[in-house]
From TrEMBL:
Low-affinity potassium transport system. Interacts with Trk system potassium uptake protein TrkA. It comes from the Bacteria. Belongs to the TrkH potassium transport family. It is a multi-pass membrane protein. This is Trk system potassium uptake protein. GO terms for cellular component: plasma membrane. One of its GO terms (molecular function) is potassium:chloride symporter activity.
Length: 484
């Protein structure tokens, strides 16, 4: 067994064992309330812990190392293995979930998508609800560490712009990941705890506050109520969600720099400025559309309903305080566009992400300038620095593959029998890891439960592709990846 194979098995084993340990939390919560659910989580914890332990022993050795292929295999394998393992207790918990539904729900959780097949959330075992939140919280911190430590050294999707050291190499990916995980993990914990406290002041009990804090900071969107965050809007919980969704969509590298004595980066970072500008313009535009269309927003002001739902979709959180699918054609079009915006690189948010839009726009203007003035020397810039052509190609390639995967997914969903709105929005919301789609079935007021099993499998795969920056997953399906 090569050192690379050993390393992959060892890492996957450790993660699987850790997931088994996390299953003990919902098991203990349900211990004296729902015996069937508690037994499902205890049994799954033992199975995952035992299997993970065996894999860890198999991969144990004198040293560990990864090449580029190994890093991709670890990243993809982690989300696939954890997504499948996390579905076991959901299927066995006695809530009537088929294997297809359980895997869809667990993959939606670990990828922080937030699409759900469950209804009547208030009546489900508390362990199941907290497990969904834990999955999203794990997925959120996992994707931040991966985006800061693994993808930059692999140059995936232009992420090489965010290397923390110019000397980073692939064989340093794991040590760097370990260092970054500690620093980012502390910030993630502080942000989660602050969000928990804020939700408590906004009227949530400790259980609901903990669950929503985890899914807010992870920009995941799973809730403990069918009414989502709107169930506590009258006490201000939606405003708490708005603040922490915005914070969680900012680059965690900026938070690290602030702790290291560079708080100015929170203001000067080009991603942050662009992200906040787009969020403000979207919220303002939707507010005007709500007022112009005389949309009934109940007791809440139009700006508040517009802001919470716009930021929720833009960051990929997926909370809802209103059924925005009923706001009219123009607002729905705005939300569809926001599916593809995303937050900042190195955050728990999803979709294309701000920096790629910035580089793609800069590249387009640069190429137009070169055509108009062939002798002029002009390069693509980001944050005041020229961007290497290889990075530009990486970004443009990512954008092309992202929309290509979206198109293929939409076609497959149409062939399965979904109507055009459901197929298009379902493909968009899963590739962008947003959560709710559009239309009567999977819109903010609906769920993914009525969809055919074939559609759920397509969407489960699409969620993984979107969460892992497209290239990471698709590379596994190329013959060149498996050639020695």
């Amino acid at each position: 067994m090569s050192i690379y194979t050993r390393t992959v098995i060892f890492i996957l084993g450790v993660l699987l064992a850790a997931l088994g340990g996390a299953m003990l939390v919902p098991a203990i919560i349900d211990l004296h309330v729902d015996a069937e659910s508690a037994h499902a989580f205890f049994g799954s914890a033992v199975l995952c812990g035992f299997t993970g332990g065996i894999m860890t022993l198999m991969g144990r050795g004198d040293g560990f190392d990864l090449d580029a292929r190994g890093a991709i295999l670890v990243t993809s394998g982690s989300w696939i293995v954890l997504g499948l393992a996390a579905a076991i207790p959901l299927h066995l918990a006695g809530i009537g979930m088929s294997w297809t539904d359980a895997i869809f729900e667990s993959v939606s959780g670990i990828t922080t998508t937030g699409a759900t097949v469950l209804t009547g959330l208030q009546d489900l075992p508390a362990g199941v609800l907290i497990w969904r939140a834990i999955l999203q919280w794990i997925g959120g911190i996992g994707i931040i560490v991966t985006a800061m430590a693994i993808w930059p050294v692999l140059g995936i999707g232009g992420m090489q712009l965010f290397r923390l050291e110019s000397s980073d190499k692939v064989d340093k990916a794991l040590p760097r990941a370990g260092e970054i995980a500690g620093a980012v993990g502390l910030i993630y914990l502080v942000l989660s705890f602050a969000c928990f406290i804020a939700y408590g002041f906004a009227g949530m009990n400790a259980f609901d506050a903990a669950a929503h804090a985890m899914t807010t900071v992870a920009t995941g969107g799973f809730s403990t109520s069918d009414a989502s965050i709107g169930g506590w809007a009258h006490e201000g919980a939606d405003l708490v969600a708005l603040v922490f969704m915005l914070l969680s969509a900012l680059p965690f590298l900026v938070f690290l720099r602030a702790v290291q004595g560079r708080p100015d980066r929170i203001i000067t970072d080009p991603q942050v400025r662009a992200f906040l500008a787009i969020a403000f313009i979207s919220c303002a535009g939707l507010t005007l559309l709500l007022l112009a269309n005389d949309v009934d927003t109940g007791e809440l002001p139009a700006w508040r309903v517009a802001a919470v739902n716009a930021v929720s979709v833009m960051t990929g959180t997926g909370y809802g305080s209103a059924d925005f699918a009923q706001w009219g054609t123009m607002p729905v079009m705005v939300f569809f566009i926001l599916f593809f915006v995303g937050g900042c690189a190195g955050s728990s948010s999803c979709s294309i992400k701000i920096f790629r839009h910035q580089i793609a726009a800069s590249a387009m203007l640069t190429y137009l300038h070169r055509y108009a003035r062939p002798r002029a020397v002009r390069s693509v810039h980001y944050d005041g620095k020229p961007v290497p052509e290889a990075t530009v190609r990486s970004v443009l390639g990512f954008v092309f593959l992202f929309f290509g995967a979206f198109a293929v997914s939409a076609v497959l969903l149409s062939l399965i029998g979904l109507d055009p709105v459901t197929a298009l929005s379902g493909a968009a919301t899963t590739i962008a890891n947003v959560g709710p789609g559009l239309g009567d079935i999977i819109g903010p007021a609906g769920t993914f439960q009525p969809l055919p099993d074939a559609a759920k499998w397509v969407m489960s795969f699409t969620m993984l592709v979107g969460r892992l920056e497209v290239l990471t997953m698709l590379a596994l399906f190329t013959p060149a990846f498996w050639r020695g």
